[in-house]
Model the fold of this input.
Amino acid sequence: MHDRPAEVIAAPSSSGPARRAIFRWSWRLFRREWRQQILVLALVALAVAGTTVGTALAYNAGQPRDATFGTANSSMTFSGPDNADVAAARKAFGTVERIDHQSIPVPGSPSRLDLRAQDPEGTYSRPTLRLVSGRFPNGGAEVAMTASAATTFGVRIGGHLDVNGHARRLVGIVENPLDLNDEFALVAPGQADPPAQVAILFEASDHAVNAFQPSVHATSVATRGTLDTTLAATVVLALETIGLLFVGLVAAAGFTVMAQRRLRALGMLGALGATDRHIRSAMVANGAVVGVVGSVTGAVTGLVAWVALTPKFEDLVKHRIARFHLPWWAIVVAIVLATVTSIAAAWWPARSAARASIVAALSGRPSPQKPAHRFAGAGGVFLAIGVACLAFAHQDTPKPALIIGGTIATTFGMLFLGPLFIRMLAMLGRRAPIMVRLAVRDLARYQARSAAALGAISLALGIAATVAISAAAAAVPEAATNLPANQAIAYLEPATGLGEDTNAVQVMSSADVAKLAAKVSALAASLHAHTVLPLSVAINPSSPTVSVDPAQLNASPNASGGSVSIRRVVGGSAAPGAILIQIPASLGRVTIISNGAQSGFQISDQVPLYVATPAVLHRYGIKADQIAKTTDIITSRTDLHGLVVHAPPRDDGAGVRRGPEQWHPTIQHIRFSTDASHTSDPTTLVTVHALQHFGLKAVQAAWLIETPRPLTAIQISAAQHAAAIAGFTVETHQSRPSNARLRDGATLIGLLLALGVLAMTVGLIRSETANDLRTLAATGASSMARRSLTGATAGALALLGALLGTGGAYVALVAWHRRDLHPLTRVPYLNLATILVGLPIIAISAGWLLSGREPAAVGHQPLE
Amino acid sequence: MTALELRDVSKVYGVGPTEVHALRNVSLTVDAGVLVAVMGPSGSGKSTLLTIAGSLELPTTGEVIVEGTSLASMSRNERARLRRRSIGYVFQDFNLLAGLTSLENVALPLELDGVGAKRARVAGMQALEELGMSDRASRFPDELSGGERQRVAIARAVVGDRHLLLADEPSGALDSVNAEGVIRLVRAACQRGVAGVIVTHDAQLASWADRVVFLRDGRIVDQTMPPPGPESLLTPDARS
Amino acid sequence: MSVRHALLALLSEGPKYGLQLRQEFEARTGEVWPLNIGQVYTTLQRLERDGLVESDDEGEEGPQKGFRITADGAAELAEWLRTPPDMTSPPRDELVIKVLVALTLPGVDVRDVVQVHRRYVVELMQQWTRLKDDATDDEVGFLLVVDAELFRLDAVIRWLDAADGRLARLAADPPPVVTGSPLLPPRLRRRMGARP
Done:
C-alpha cells in the first residue's frame, strides 16, 4: 500500500483546494482555448460597448437643459416693447432675464433671421449661448451670428452688414449649444430697439405664473416640463436592459459551444469524482473571467468610441454634448450586470453539462435536447405577455416598467420561438443541395448553441428594425416640407412672405409687375425651368398696404392688417387645434397659417391661399366644372376641415368697416393631379366665386418655377442674389431636420452588430464541426463544399435572425401603436430590405469568401 | 475482503421499441488484491458493466455494493465522493485533462477531495515515481506519448487510498510492448491490495487477470477456473 | 522445430561437448522444449556425416567428446536463418476440425463448444502469462518463447472470436439451407488433402 501520510486520507472535504484545482484547470483551459475565448470575450465586449454608447447617446439625446429656457423654468413673451409687463413680472417673480427680439430679412429670400439682444452672461440664458470664434458683440455697432447665418448673409468676422437700418460689424460667431438648428444674430442687450417681441425668463412656480396677470401683449406663457429627464432615464434603462439581454444571449451562445467542446473533459471530471458543483464552478469561473474582462474592455471601448464619435452625435441630435456628461451609475451598473449576465450565461450550459450523464459526456454525446415545440409554447406565452405589456404601456404618460417588461418578454418570446424556426428551416432545406442540407441540419441538431446565436442576431437586427421603423413612423412625410427640391417660388414682395409680415400687401403698378415678371422669366430661363406658373393672391382693393405682425393679429384681432390668414389656434378662447381663418379689417393677402410653435412669435407651416386662376387649375388638372358653384375655397389638403372662419369685413358702403364675423366658407376637397402637398405650393385656392362674393381682387403675387432637376445650392444662392438685386424674393426647398440619417445609422449599426455576432458564432459553430470538415476533406470534398457549408450556415442564421428581428419589431410596434396604426404605414422599405435581403447576402458571401482555407489541422485530433 | 459486488444487475437503455438490454442479471464479486478481466465482443455490455461498477451510471435493477455500501442508497454527491476516494478509472484513450500537467492530473482527485495542494502534490509525485514517471511530472498530456499518458492515468487511478481500479481497454491504442507495460502496472497495483476490473477484448491483456469473465449479450456466460501452477507447461509431454 | 540447426547455432559460438549442448539448448529456450541426450547425439552424428560439424579426433562416444562447426556448417546455418518456414499450406488444426464437426452435429450448440475452447485457451494463456510475470528481464530467450506461445494462443482466441461472431450472425440471419452442400469448398479440401 502507499505510505501516504495518514492525515491526507482523513482530510476533511473542504472545498477550498477543490475550488483552487478547478479554477487552475479553467484558467489553463482559458489560456489554451484563447482563440475561442477571445471570440466570446469580443462578443461580450462588443455588446457592452454598444450598450455604453447607446446609453450615453440616450442620456444625452434628450436635451438636458432647454434650448429656449436655459436654466429658467418659465418664460413669457410680449409683443412690442412692453416695459410695463416686464417690470410687473420682475416684481412678481424676482430675478427676470429679458431678451429682446427683432427679425432681419434675409436678402433674396422670404425667410427672416431672428435678432436677439441677449446678455451672454445672462442669469438663465447663459447655457443657450456659446462663442465659437471672435467675441461677443458690445455697443451699438457690433453683431455676432451663427455660422450658417453668417454664410447666408455672406459676411465674415470683421465684415459689415446692415441690420434693420444699422450698419454693424460682425465680431463673433456664436451658437446655441442646446440647439444647433437655432439660427440667429446676436447684439448686445438693449440693442434691438425697438423690439418686436420681448421674452423674459424667470424661475417661478406654476401657481405664481398662473396668478400673474399680464396685459394683452403677453403672447405666450410657457413653463418647462420635467418629463424629459424621466423619459431619458427610462430610455437609458430600457436600452441597458436590451443591451444586457444581448450580452446574455451572446455569452450563452459562446458558452454553450464552449461547454460542448469541453463535454468530454467535464465528463472526465465527473468520473474523477467532481461534484456537480465543481463542474459548474469550472464553467462559471470561465464565465466570470470572460464577463469581467469583456465588460470592462467593452465599457472602455464604448467610452473611447463615444468620445471619438461625439461630434457625429452632436450633428445627429443637434445640440452640443459634454463628452463626460455621462450616466456613470448606469455604466457601472452595466459592467456589473454584464459580468453577472455572462456568469449566468456560463452557468446555464454548465448546469446541463453537470446534469448530463457522465457516460454520455465521456463519449462526447451531448445530452438530448428538449423538443422545439415546448420552447415554442413558452415563446408564445412570452410574446403574448410582451405584447400585452407594450400595448398597455402606451398611455398618456408611458409606463417605464411596462415598457421594459414588455421589451424583455417580447425578446424572450422571439428567442424561444427560434428553435421552431430553425426546425422549419431544416425541414425546408431537406431538398436543398447536400451542403446546404448539412448546414441547416447541423443548426437544428445543435439547437442549444444555434438558438442562442440566433437570439443574439435577431435582437441586434430587431433593435435596428425597431429604430428604423419607428423613425419612419415618426417621420414627417417629405411632402410637409415647403417645396420640392426642383421648385422655387419667386415672390413679388421683397423680403416678406413666409417671414413675419406675411399679411403685408404690396400693390404694384402693372408696369412694375411686368418689369419684375420679365426678370423672373430671365431667372427661370437661367434655371432651365420648364414651367413658370404665375400665381395670384386675393386682396382687398381697398385695403391699405400696412405690414401687420401675425402675433399682434392673434393677440388683438381688431388690429388693422393687410391680409387674410388662417391659423391654428394654440390657446385662448377657441378650442386648441382648431383652425381659424382670420381676415383683418382691411383685406390683404389671404393665407392659412398653422401656428405650430409654442413660443408665440414663431410661425410655421403657412398655407398660402392663391387664386384659382385658369392657369393654376390647368396646371393641377382641375376642370372648372369640378368646382361647385358655391365653393369658396378648393384644397388638396385634408386637414382644413372644421375651420372657424372670420368673415372678411366688408365696406358697408358708408365707409364704415365692420369687424370680423363668423364666416363659413364652403371648402371643397379636390384631388390635384400633380403633387401639390408642399406647404408653399398652391394647395389651397380661392375660387372666382369667392372673389366675386367678397369683392376681392386677384393680384399677381408670385411665380412657381419648376425645373427638371433639383436646384443646386449654387443655383439657389445665385437666384437669391439676383432676386435681391431685382427686388423680389425666391423661396426654395428647405431641408428639414430629417431622421433618415438616424434610421440609416441604426440600420447600419444593427447590421454591423449582427454581422459581428454572426461571424463569431458561425466561427464557433464551425470550429466545433472541424471534424466534419476533416471528414469532408478526406472524402474528397473541395474547398467549394467548405465554402458552401459555411456560407449556408451564415446565410441561414442571418435570414432567420432578420426575419425574427423584423417580425418581433413589428409585433412590438403594432402593440405600441395599437390606437393609431397609421404611422406604421410609412415603411422604411430600403432599410428593411437591407436587413432582410442584404444581410443574408452579405453573410453568405462573407462565409463563402472566408472559408476557402483548408482547416488548420487536418488529421490532427485535438487533445482535450 | 470484497471490494466490489454486483448483485443481479440489469441495465436497460431506452424504452419501448428502442429498448436495449445492455446487461442482464449480472452478478460479480471482486475481492481486494484480485484482478478480474471481463472479456466479450463489442456490444456485449462490458463497458456498461464497468460504468455501473464505477457509479457513473445506476443499474436499472440489481444492486452495486462498493466497499460494503450500496450505491443505490447514495446521493449524487456521495457517489462523487466515492469516486474521488475509492474508485480509480483508466479509459482507453481519453484520460487526462489537457491544461493540467501530469502531476496536477494525478493530484486532481485528492484536491477535489479537499486535500491541500501541497500534500496532494506530494502524494501525486509519489504515485508517479512508483510508475517511473517522475521525470514527466511537469509535462502536459499533449507532450507525452500514448504509453506515458496511460501510465499517468494509472497513477491517477491509484493515487490516494483507492481500493477499486476500473480500466476500460487501458491499452487500446498502444503497441504490445507498451500494452504489457500498462497491464503490468495494473497488476502490480492489484498485488498491493487493490481490487481491479479490466474490460477488454484482448486475450493477451485478459490473461494477466486472476480470473477472466466472459460476457455475451449482456450475460456472464463463463469464467476461467483459478489457474493451475505454471509448472504444468514445462513437462516434456506438453509439447508433444 | 529444427534441433539440427539449433545445435549448429550453439556450435557457431565455439566448440562444445554434447552434454553442454543439451544444457545450453534448454537454458536458452527457457526449458520450454525439453531435449533428451540421445536425440542430441543422433543429431550430431548426422551433422558429422553431412560434414557440417567435426568431432575431436577419434575419441570414444560419450559426454566428453567435443564438437565444432565446419565452414559448410556455418554456411548451412546462415542459409537456414534466412529461409522462411513453409507457411503456405494450412496445418491440419484439430480445433478447427472440432468446430467444423460441431457445426454438422445436430443438438450441439457450436457457440458453447467455441466458448469451452476459448476458456481453455485463455486459461492456458493465463498460465503462460504467469510464467512471464515471474521471469526477469534478462531471460530474453525465455520471454521470446513465451511471447511466441501467447501470440499463437492469441491467434486461436481471435479465430474463436471471429467464428463466434460469424455464428452469431448466422444464428440471427440464417441462410437458406441447401441439402447435400459440401462442408468445405472443394478448393480448400483439395489443398488440405494435398498435405502429406
The interface with chain B takes residues 31-34, 115, 118-119, 121-123, 125-131, 133-134, 150-151, 153-154, 157-158, 161, 164-165 of chain C (CB under 8 Å). The mean pLDDT of chain C is 78. Residues 4 and 167 of chain C are 43 Å apart (CA to CA). Chain C is about 65% helix and 5% strand.
